[in-house]
Design a protein that fits this description.
With 275 residues, this protein is mostly helical. The chain contains twelve helices and two strands; from the N terminus they run αααααααααββααα. 69% of the residues lie in helices and 1% in strands.
Length: 275
């Protein structure tokens, strides 16, 4: 194959992967507007994130059930980022899938980017555009001008359809990224995996809240048990619980049994007044 020929990517069923058009990416970007309508506290945005990409992915891989299963499995993992950044990531993922990139690499990129991109998206849209647009439009509304609410609706309508640009950008950058990373796949797989684990690990204190009751003291001086843990390592208890559950998963423990066990232990410790 000459350097000018493009590699033919095959699905698991042996059929060639179809190319996506700009229209396909634009449709995906518009689908992503309702991404958070399928929100859950277990996986956050993962369901809507995956559903938004499925039509485009099925166009590429057709009826290859194995590919669809793998795609849904890694994308249904925990996902929580700024909505416009999510659309950018969708374009990036679809671009890498179109090129037949190793899904371990794609998964690592996905898990490693959603945290940092959330900070960028929040800064642009929710910490800058939102307060500025609200201040201007509220000022107009207080003066009795109908332009206040109309302008606010227009601004956020444009913000919503701007996802088309984010989807295109992600898809374009993804194509360039795959070309660049081809010879460094092994190292990028390891680096992306490490980055993804670090990001998810950093979220533990935000989503796992465990602390001993302030009434539970140690010694004659009334030192609380919780303060002892905090002085050793802040958020040590949530970390220990997460590692315990991870260890149980590695031991092939039943998921339902783990959930029931967590609920039972929580009720007992609360009843005793320890937590």
């Amino acid at each position: 194959m000459s350097s000018n020929e493009e590699k033919v990517v095959l699905a698991k069923n042996g059929k060639p992967v179809q190319k996506l058009t700009k229209g396909d990416i634009d449709k995906m970007s518009l689908y992503s507007v309702i991404e958070q309508s399928a929100f859950s506290f277990e996986r956050m945005q993962a369901l809507g994130f995956t559903e938004s990409m499925l039509p485009a992915f099925k166009k590429m891989y057709g009826d290859s059930k194995e590919d669809i299963s793998e795609f849904m499995t890694y994308n249904m993992e925990f996902m929580n980022t700024e909505p416009h950044a999510a659309t950018f990531m969708m374009g990036l993922i679809l671009s890498m899938e179109e090129k037949g990139e190793d899904r371990k690499v794609i998964e690592g990129v996905r898990n490693g980017l959603f945290g940092p991109l959330a900070g960028v998206g929040d800064t642009i849209f929710w910490f800058t555009l939102l307060p500025i647009s609200a201040a201007i439009c509220c000022s107009l509304a207080q003066e009795g001008s109908i332009l206040g609410p109309l302008l606010y609706i227009l601004i956020w309508f444009l913000a919503a359809i701007s996802r088309i640009l984010f989807g295109r950008l992600g898809f374009t950058l993804g194509t360039k990224l795959v070309t660049t990373m081809a010879e460094y796949t092994k190292y990028l797989t390891e680096a992306a995996g490490i980055l993804g684990v670090m990001v998810v690990g950093g979220l533990i204190p935000s989503y796992v809240s465990i602390a001993f009751s302030e009434n539970l003291t140690f010694g004659m001086e009334g030192t609380t048990v919780q303060s002892i843990f905090d002085n050793v390592i802040p958020n040590l208890l949530p970390l220990c619980v997460v590692f315990l559950i991870y260890w149980l998963f590695k031991k092939k423990a039943n998921v339902l049994a783990i959930i029931v066990g967590i609920i039972a232990v929580s009720i007992v410790l609360s009843f005793l007044g320890w937590m």
